[in-house]
Design brief:
The chain has 258 residues and is an alpha/beta fold. It is built from 5 helices and 14 strands.
């Protein structure tokens, strides 16, 4: 791993030149130059346990694809507009991590393009895209041999519910056929299979408490399988797919979610 001890403020000017061609004999070519000062703060390379890599390469949002919203209760935003980025809908998480002393970097390419020895955590947040076989092999090696911690926010996927949800796009004046659920849970299952983790296809929601902290679980999957040496948190939740498709409220206790 390459470690830098440099620190300080560094700045340069970005020059942008705009040229407009002559329109007639009275108006000659027009040239304008814009100077944009850019200054960045350089810090020494943080320790590995403080560096988080946030996978954005496998995130697909509207209009690149008609994927439904993450939280099905938010009826004002039917599609995944914000792209699941730390500077849009996950800005709150980003600010919280920074306040705790973590440094978050965006991975905008596939898993083979980063060195796991530089990072303590890889965050997989609501991925819509599939994973290459080479990515799966590489990530297994990163976790098992290089000590990379994998943090997964799986969201939801349910085939009948995807077919049930209808959305009329006012821009195209057409009914939209969704390309998947809130995330690509089948792809995550393929990625996590080597680690003994299997996610289900039911969609759960509800409120519960962890110690003194009240929490809300908004449209998420559950664990079907998890390593026996791991710890699992369960909660009493509602089957959201049953509510939306059959208009039937169904409460289930001990749903494994974390």
């Amino acid at each position: 791993a390459v470690v830098s001890t440099q620190s300080g403020h560094y700045g340069r000017d970005v020059l942008l030149t705009v040229q407009s061609p002559a329109t007639n004999e009275d108006i000659s070519e027009q040239t304008s130059t814009l100077h944009i000062p850019v200054k960045v703060n350089i810090i020494p390379t943080p320790s590995r346990d403080r560096r988080i890599l946030w996978d954005h390469f496998h995130s697909i949002g509207y209009p690149l694809g008609p994927f439904p919203r993450d939280n099905l209760k938010l009826h004002t935003s039917p599609l995944d507009w914000n792209g699941d980025h730390i500077h849009t809908n996950f800005n709150g998480i980003y600010k919280h991590l920074r306040s705790k002393g973590y440094f978050v970097e965006i991975l905008s390419t596939h898993f083979e393009c980063f060195d796991a020895k530089n990072y303590g955590y890889l965050f997989l947040v609501d991925p819509e895209d599939a994973y290459f076989e080479s990515e799966i092999r590489k990530l297994n090696e990163d976790v098992n041999e290089k000590g990379l911690n994998l943090v997964v926010f799986a969201d939801w996927y349910n085939g009948p519910l995807v077919k049930h949800i209808k959305f009329y796009d006012e821009n195209t004046k057409q009914w939209v056929v969704l390309q998947g659920g809130g995330s690509n849970v089948p792809a995550l299952n393929k990625l996590l299979a080597a680690h003994g983790v299997i996610l289900g296809d039911k969609v759960w929601h509800g409120k519960f408490s962890v110690g003194p902290h009240a929490m809300e679980y908004g449209s998420g999957t559950s664990l079907l399988s998890f390593p026996t040496e791991g710890k699992v948190l369960t909660a009493t939740l509602y089957d959201e797919a049953s509510e939306m498709i059959h208009s039937k409220e169904m409460s289930v206790s001990d749903v494994p979610i974390f």
